[in-house]
Amino acid sequence: MSITFSRILRRSLLHRRARSLSALVALTVSAAVATALLTLYADLDAKLHKEFRSFGANIVATGSSLPADALSSIQQAAGTDAIAAPFGYAVATTDRGTSVVVAGTDLATVKKLDDWWQVTAWPSGENDALIGQRAADFIADEHDLKLTFAGKPIVLHGVGHLKTGGDEDSRIYMPLTAFTAWTGASTSVIEVQVPGGSAKVEAAISRIKQALPGIDVQPVRQLVEGESRIVDRTHALMYAAVLLIALTVGVSVLATLSASVLERRRDFALMKALGGTQLQLMLLFLLEALVLALAGVAVGFAVGSGAAFGISELNFHTATLPRLSVVPVVLLLNVLIATMAALFPARVLRGLQPAALLKGE
Predict the structure, then answer these.
(1) pLDDT of the chain along its 361 residues, tens only?
(2) Contact status, residue 75 vs residue 340, Cβ threshold 8 Å
């Protein structure tokens, strides 16, 4: 009986290839889209957070006189994967007699922290300087950059220009050790970049405040809130896309299976007349839909994994490898679509009248 049943099922799928292929394509699209979105979703947070890290610091710690160990304490409290850069500021006089803000910092760390800065060349020597594009207008000789602070002169070598569109363009950046030796000013601002969402940022702020209770620690609200909002909206968009595709595929498969039932009414009527039960007919029809759903998952997983890999490489420049963990979800989705789409046409089988249909009525 099982051999006969499987033979009928196979011949039923192959006899009407156009209908079967149409349903298979729809279910494959569903599985491919679901696989791609779920694969991307699995490490979406990490990729988006990594993209936001390129926008710079998300925590700023300030104080009129930060402790000597402030940087190490903040680094320890923020975590080993955080980036912390110290800044000291002073207003100096240029060789043209104009005032300019000079910032001392660890330029190697700033290069990692603010990799969105547009810099022609990063300084590497103790007397090298990075000049903002607006600050360059106040300088007569960038090669031998002469500055004076509180009557103390210094000569720096300008090696690169900086452009950000912000206050940084009006500053001159130099190594912190040379800055402190020249001005006597210490670090007054520490910018910190903590990987992760708003919850991790808030947790890091709490730890920093506990470690250094005398300083002001604030998140960069615009960046932190914007990151959280974009991540949440991206999640919602992916959920909505999967739901929309599922509904569209469901309608397509429903139409295909309904047409299949109408075309095969005489076949089903003949099976009933030969002793086939209502349950057997409905089971046969549902199994056809499930076989198509399984085939769609097999093909769709390969197509969707390839699409996820390409999208990740194109947008995030990192590969997203296939994830077998999404297969159960994709399988469940396709089975639900196929089952729901087959339920309505299957109900038509109940009302079949073999005698009337075989007479041609």
Answers:
(1) 444 556 655 555 555 666 677 778 888 888 888 888 888 776 666 565 555 555 667 888 888 778 888 999 999 998 888 899 999 999 999 988 899 999 999 999 999 888 878 899 999 888 999 999 999 988 988 888 999 999 999 999 999 999 988 889 999 999 999 999 999 988 899 989 887 777 788 888 899 989 888 888 888 755 445 555 666 677 677 777 777 777 777 777 777 776 666 566 565 555 655 555 556 666 776 777 788 888 888 998 999 888 888 877 776 666 677 888 888 888 888 888 888 777 776 665 565 555 444 455 4
(2) no
**Rounded Cα–Cα distance for residues 47 and 227 (Å):** 12
Q: How far apart are CA 177 and CA 184, in angstroms?
A: 10
- For 329, left (φ over 0), alpha (ψ -120 to 50), or beta? alpha
Strand 171-175 and strand 99-105: pairing?
Answer: parallel
DSSP letter at 247 equals H
pTM of the predicted model as reported, rounded to 2 decimal places: 0.56
- Whether the CB-CB separation of 104 and 87 falls below 8 Å is answered with yes
Residue whose C-alpha is closest to residue 322's, from 293, 351, 300: 300
CA distance 51 to 54: 6
CB burial readout 44-53, b (16+ within 10 A) else e:
beebbbeebb
Closest-CA residue to 342 (of 296, 307, 292, 299): 292
Asked if 242 and 332 touch (Cβ cutoff 8 Å), the reply is no
Q: What is the token pair recorded at 338?
A: 């196929």
CA 6 to chain centre: 45
